[in-house]
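Design a sequence for this backbone.
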């Protein structure tokens, strides 16, 4: 199942750095999530959902 994190980020014209700051994670962590190299923790998944109001 593909995630839509990059699409949601780009729609808002945010950099990976900006998204990482908003979520409290590094730019590298955002990249790993976008490329599906890592899955978010439950806590991070909730923060992503809250940030994008999903």
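Sequence:
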């Amino acid at each position: 199942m593909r995630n839509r994190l990059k699409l949601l980020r780009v729609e808002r014209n945010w950099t990976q750095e900006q998204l990482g700051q908003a979520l409290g994670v590094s730019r590298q962590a955002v990249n790993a999530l976008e490329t599906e190299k890592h899955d978010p923790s439950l806590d991070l998944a909730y923060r992503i959902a809250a940030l994008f109001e999903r």
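The chain has a mean pLDDT of 95.
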